[in-house]
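Intended use. Records such as the Ig-like domain-containing protein entry shown here are meant for training and evaluating sequence-to-structure methods. They are not intended to support clinical decisions.
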Amino acid sequence: MTLSNLKCTLLLVVFSFYSADGYYYHFMSECRYSWKDLRDMELIERRIYNKVEYARYNSTLKKFIGYTDHGVYNAEKWNSDPAVMAQMQAEVDRYCKHNNAIYYSNILEKTAEPYIKLRSAKPASSKHPAMLVCSAFDFYPKAIRVTWLRDGEEVTSDVTSTEELSDGDWYYQVHSHLEYTPKSGETISCKVEHASFPQPKVVDWDPSMPESERNKFAIGASGLVLGVIIAAAGLIYYKKKSHGRILVPQS
Ligand SMILES: *[C@@H]1O[C@H](CO)[C@@H](O)[C@H](O)[C@H]1NC(C)=O
């Protein structure tokens, strides 16, 4: 997965003016790009009066476009002024490229590997007797692909997945469900593709007893053994006591 297929926008409201009667004016700058080398950087600067965008500078077009009579009038005026034009176009490097290079190295290129958990659960429908849940936790960035493999072949039917859920702390989680009918000897795997992995990570389902089940089993078995020992000890004690009892003849 590459970041090149993401569309990035850095938004900044440059300034706003408010007046007593509630009318206001503001500029909004957007730096739009989709390549790491910022080659397609586009600056869009919107000029807005009372919530209506009346003119916009588009650095790809290298000019202003007006959307209202007032906007068209001003766009013509600004477009015919070489100083304004040079200054606007210079903002692409000075403002957009400069800030986004920093933004890239500080945020966009950072990744956090997901922690993957594969478990069985009760199927949601009665179509299949078994269901597996593959969860990926605490990953960044959001883009991820979770798929299922049956003996190495991708399975697409009876698969449902949640969206990438935001944990609210920059990390995300996602859960994918596969409902299936187990066959002996097959291998079911969950495949996760994420920017933090050099290669997709494949986790095979181990149908043997999971650890928590093994623990419960061990506790139960120890309890049983202990119970048997105590019962046996009690029985022996009781037998010994009743043997040693002297019967006093009654007269
Ligand atoms: C800027 O102009 C280019 C070229 O016409 C266009 O493809 C692009 O969508 C425009 N951007 C905006 C936000 O209007």
